[in-house]
Known about the structure:
Oligomer: single chain
Distance between the termini: 22 Å
Number of strands: 2
Shape: elongated
Structural class: mainly alpha
Amino acid sequence: MMHKMSFKNEKIFVLSIDLLILTVFLSITYVLFEYPHVFPYFKELETAKEIIDPQKYMVAMDALNQKFDYVVFEVALAYFLYESLSLILFRQTVGRRLFHQKVYLDFESKYDVLLRIAILPVRTLVKILSVLWVLPVIIIGALFLLGKKDRTLLDTIFLTETRREVKEHG
Length: 170
């Protein structure tokens, strides 16, 4: 079933699986270490909605808005570490592994590992920033959906390519 799916659908499923893995990881770390602060943030948000006094409500919401940036930073950092380390070490994330995909540089070099260390984290950082800054998401998404090639804008900019692994049976 997975092999008959289009490249674009596979990319969407890969990202969904990776985000699910990240959510499970963040949930486990929260239960064990009470970190990150994502889950208490949502509980505090619900508590603030129950405040009747407008003055107290504004103070509570102001404090929560200041925490929001920190929560977003924690989630972005977790995703950055997850994707960067996975791509550097294994050329794939869990989602890519399920779809038998690996990320390669477009050029051969005897310094392949060093180039992956230099290029792939920057690629992941740009991906995260484009999600946070909405407009690049619209541009990248439109180019991805309308493009005829099986490449994203980030693949073109950072000279990477996602290829399907061919498993030999024998």
